[in-house]
Amino acid sequence: MTAATRSKTLDRVLVLEMVRVTEAAAVAASTLTGRGDEKAADAAAVEAMRAALNELYMDGTVVIGEGERDEAPMLFIGEKVGSAIGKGPKIDIALDPLEGTTICATAGPNSLAVLAIAEEGGLLNAPDVYMDKIACGPGYPEGIIDLDKSPTENVRALAAAKGVEPKDIIACVLDRPRHQKLIAELRALGCGIMLIGDGDVAGVIATTNPDTTIDIYMGAGGAPEGVLAAAALRCVGGQFKGRLLFRNDDERARAAKWGVTDLDKQYDLTELARGDCIFAATGVTDGSLLAGVKRKGKIMTTESVVMRASSGTVRWVKGEHRI
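The chain above was modelled as a monomer; its predicted structure follows.
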């Protein structure tokens, strides 16, 4: 992957400011961890993230958010955020204030507050539909994974490049009925499969970390989460392919509304997140990527990661927040 050109526009939006935004959302959501109320946890994260974004000097536009305006009262697609609307640097924002709402409500692993930013036009305006995804970490020949290949062909190509047998590959797949055929095919190859209940942004990023032992991510999940994951991979390396999936004409019309003209296109990493971009995430619950929010007396602790494409920098940030 060629390094992205450093953006002077993004230089004006400090990297650590992005962490403060995801920290605010994570802390707010954590007060409802394990309470069984997905909507309340998501609403708390949304409100906190929106308030933090509105403190930043920028002319921000939410291109991936909580849904369309009539479905989401805050952080809807097209909403303007920032303290300098009309005069500050123009920033595209993709966000998921609480990735893994069910995970948070049940105190499961890998719930995150997630955010990615780029210069205006840098992030795909992905509609809220499904996306077929495949991802792997860095160090492999370009184009080794492809959605036009079968799962078997992708696994065998990855195994050959890694110098192992297909049975030595571990795939991460969302545990959904729609993936029964995929899971059966992978198990017929002898692959190990890590099934996750939710949180496919963390699942995709896990392919870049050898400590997780995950080699490849496969399956269908939310398109907005696909763009967020692609932004992260732009920063740390790896490969990602995505293709929008439509269940009906209403979803096709929604995609056209947001400027998607080729409904069958297979997007690669740089088409989903172009140029310089910054990705930030804070753990809400403990997971493979980040520790969750902890309360110790009158102090809450957080763990975050923030990445930048132009520099390839990855920063791990631990915070203490007095209540």
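Residues 152 and 185 are 7 Å apart (CA to CA).
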